[in-house]
C-alpha cells in the first residue's frame, strides 16, 4: 500500500458516470461500472479540502474483504478488484487503479441509508438525549453515551448526494420503497451487522454502528457501494471500551472530534486539516484494515 494522495481520478476516453463524496464512478457498459475510491474525506456530509493519504486503498481493500465475508447472507455488486482482469479499455490505467478500484455490477440504487446500531453513539446518542427515541424506536431510560443497546436496532436515513442525510423511521422507508423491500433491507442489514460484529469482536474491535447501501438488478436486491469501512462504521478498540463518553476509534470519528473543536458551522467549505490529524487518520485506517483482514 502506498501513501500517494489521490483526490480526483480522471480516465481520458472512459465515460464518466457520477462523482460521490469519496468515489469517482465510470460507465463501462450497460451492466458494469468502475468505482474508484479517492482519498477525499467527508465529515458531517461536507467534503473536506484535505485528503487522507492511502484512505481510498484502505476503503477498497476492506470492502473487498467484507463483500466476500457476507456473500452467504446476500449477493453484492463486486465483480473483481484485480486490475489485470478489467476490460481492455481500462488496461492503460491499471497502475492508477490498482488497489483503489472495483469493477461492479450496475444496479438501481435504493434511496435509503441502512444504518444498524449496536451501541448508542453519534446522532443516535443526540436524538436519545432529546426524546429517548432513535428513528422512532423507544429506548430504555438511563442509557449512557456509548452504552451497548439491549438489542440491535435498524435506524434508516435518507440518502443525500449533497447536504445532510436525515434519520427517518421504518414506516417512512416502507412508504418510500414498499413494505416488503423495507422489511428485507432491515432483515439483511441486521444479519450482516451481527455476523461482522461477532467476527470483529474476536479481533478486538467493537463495531458500534454501520451503514449499508443496496441496489436492485431486476427483482434482486444486492449489497453495493462500500461495506463496513472506517468511513461507514464506528470501530472501537475493545480493550479501551468504557461507556459514559466518546470512545477511541479506528475510523473518521477521530477527524469529526477534531472538527468539533473548531468554530465551524458544518457547512461548506470545510476547514483544512493539520498534517498531524491526516497522518494519525491514515494510521487508524491502516490499523483497522490490518486487524480485520489478518488471518
Question: Could you name the key traits of this structure?
Answer:
about 300 residues; alpha+beta; Phosphorylase Kinase, domain 1; D-amino Acid Aminotransferase, Chain A, domain 1; seven-stranded antiparallel β-sheet; five-stranded antiparallel β-sheet; globular
Largest sheet: 7 strands, antiparallel
CATH topology of the largest domain: D-amino Acid Aminotransferase, Chain A, domain 1
Helix content: 25-40%
| Count of separate structural domains | 2
- List unreliable stretches of 5+ residues: none
**SSE topology string:** EEEEEHEHEEEHEEEEHHEEEHH
Spatial extent as radius of gyration: 19 Å
CATH domain class of the largest domain? Alpha Beta
Global outline: globular
| Tally of helical segments | 7
CATH superfamily of the largest domain: ATP-grasp fold, B domain
Instruction: Please identify, by name, the CATH architecture of the largest domain.
Output: 2-Layer Sandwich
> What's the overall average pLDDT, rounded?
94
- What is the CA-CA span between the terminal residues? 18 Å
